Amino acid sequence: MMELSELTLKVRELAVATGAFIREERKKFSRERIEKKHAHDYVSYVDKESERRIVACLRELLPEAGFIAEEGSGTHTDEEYCWLVDPLDGTTNFIHNHAPYCVSIALRNREEILLGVVYEVCRDECFWTYKGAPAYCNDRQIRVSQVAVPDEAFMAFGLPYETEAYKPVFNRLIEGCYGHVAGIRVVGAAAVTWPTGVLKRVPKPLLVRGMWRQVSCWYRMPEDG
C-alpha cells in the first residue's frame, strides 16, 4: 500500500470530483427518480452513480481492500483493509435542496481507522486526516472547539431512521438540553457534524448510534483529547 499521506491526497481529489458531480446533478435533479429504502430513508440515482464512481476509483488505488458502502457496491469478507463509503450523506437534504450534504470516505484495517475524508458539497470544504496527522479543512489545520460550558454550546444532533427505537432517546436529549444550551440543530448529514464542531460552528456535536456516524469519529484527534 502507498503512503497514507499520498493515498489521502488521492482520496481527497476523488471526493472533491464526486462532489462536483453531485453539485451539477442538483441543478437538474428530478424527484421522480427517488427510491424509498425505508420509512423516511431515500436513495436517488445521484447516490448510486456517485458510489459507482467512487468504488471504481478506490479499487484502482487499493485493489486488495474490501468495501462497506451505503448503497451496497463492493463487498467485504476478510480483507486486511476496508473502504467505508457514503457517496451522498444527507440524501434527504439533497433532495430538498437543503444544506449540508457530503461525500464521506474512510479506510480502516482490522483494528482502526487509517484515513478519512469528508467533502461538504455546499460549502466546498474538504475535511481530512490520516493516522498520525492533524485534521484539516482544505489546507487549514483545525482543532476541536474549546467551549466547555453547556450554556455556551451550540449543539447539533444526528439521529438514525429507527424512529420508534430512538424517539425516547431524542425526547430525553431535548428535555435535558433545551433551555440549557445556546442552540440545538439537527444537521441531517452525520459525517459533517463533527467537522463543523471542529470549526467551532457547532461546539458540541452529538451523534446518536448509526453506522456512518461512527466513521465521523476519526475527527477527534489524539492531540485534542
Please outline the helices and strands.
Blueprint: H1 4-27, E1 34-38, E2 41-44, H2 45-61, E3 66-69, E4 82-89, H3 91-95, E5 102-108, E6 113-120, E7 125-130, E8 135-137, E9 140-142, E10 154-158, H4 163-177, E11 183-186, H5 193-198, E12 204-207, H6 211-215
Parallel strand pairs: 3-4, 10-11, 10-12
Antiparallel strand pairs: 1-2, 4-5, 5-6, 6-7, 7-8, 8-9
Helix pairs in contact: 1-2
Give a written overview of the molecule.
This protein is α/β, with parallel strands linked by helices. Helices cover 32% and strands 27% of the residues. It contains six helices and twelve strands. It has helices at 4-27, 45-61, 91-95, 163-177, 193-198, 211-215; strands at residues 34-38, 41-44, 66-69, 82-89, 102-108, 113-120, 125-130, 135-137, 140-142, 154-158, 183-186, 204-207. The chain has a seven-stranded mixed β-sheet. Helix 1 packs antiparallel against helix 2. The longest helix has 24 residues, at 4-27. The protein is globular. The chain starts with a helix and ends in a 10-residue tail after the last helix.
Provide a short characterization of the protein structure.
The chain is of the alpha/beta class.
Strand content: 25-35%
**Series of H and E elements:** HEEHEEHEEEEEEHEHEH
What's the gyration radius in Å? 17 Å
Shape: globular
Query: How far apart, in Å, are the first and last alpha carbons?
Result: 29 Å
Query: Which structural class do you get from the secondary structure elements?
Result: alpha/beta
- Let me know the largest β-sheet: 7 strands, mixed
Low-confidence sequence ranges: 202-225
Q: Percentage of helical residues?
A: 25-40%
Individual helix count: 6
Count of DSSP E strands? 12
Please tell me the overall pLDDT: 83
Widest beta sheet: strand line-up:
3-4-5-6-7-8-9
